[in-house]
Amino acid sequence: MKKQRKWYEYLWIVSVIYLTLGFFNILFAWLGVICFLTPLLIAVSKGNKAYCNRYCGRGQLFELLGGNLLLSRKKAPPKFLKSKWFRYGFLAFFMTMFGVMLYATYLVFQGANISKVVTLLWVFKLPWHWANTSMVPDGVAQFAFGFYSVMLTSTVLGFVTMLLFKPRSWCVYCPMGTMTQGICLIKSKKIDKNKDKYLS
Ligand code: SF4
User: Which distant-in-sequence residues (6+ apart) come within 8 Å of 48 by Cβ?
Assistant: First the structure.
């Protein structure tokens, strides 16, 4: 009998729609904040990685493209990619760049000129002149440009990693994955400590 698919197995469609909407109106980038906060909230409240295991549309997308559509070489990722120093180093770099993006947003709220570009891989400035952001304050639009840059950059990195290695190799060093894993680890240690307290 064919296994009934669960609704969350189709969340990859949401990821595709999200990336596509950004081309039509950059303000849709704000929706990505949900993908940023949900894994953290689940990790903090439940102490598990249910988001990664079930609800991450991006992870599903790589699985689909690399696994089902055979776009992946399906080679094991290099060891350094899995190492702690690389994963936490990349997380630190990623969060620093995220902070720079937030600062740029703050400056625009303070009156600086908005920069209507999407920055790919933190270096390449892609003009996004067609974006009509007149309905919101410039600071709100600046955040959308910055956040979409983050989302597009991580998707491109994930896509290249998928091509070169196994379909979900991006998950090995994905900053969200590293953060949620760290939170789960801290939570499980706390639970263990509490258990020890009650058992001793
Ligand atoms: S590690 Fe990142 S890309 Fe992979 S499933 Fe988790 S949040 Fe999604």
Answer: 42, 184
Among 18, 35, 53, 58, residue to substitute to test ligand 1 (most atoms within 8 Å of Cβ): 58
pLDDT in tens, 53-83: 999 999 999 999 999 999 999 999 999 999 9
Distance CA(61)–CA(67), nearest Å, equals 10
How far does the chain reach from its first CA to its final CA, in angstroms? 50
- With a cut of 70, say whether residue 97 has pLDDT above it: yes
Note the pTM of the prediction, 2 decimals.
0.92
Q: Is 167 in the pocket of ligand 1 (CB under 6 A)?
A: no
CA dist 53 and 123 (Å) reads 31
Is there a contact between 150 and 143 (Cβ–Cβ < 8 Å)?
Answer: no
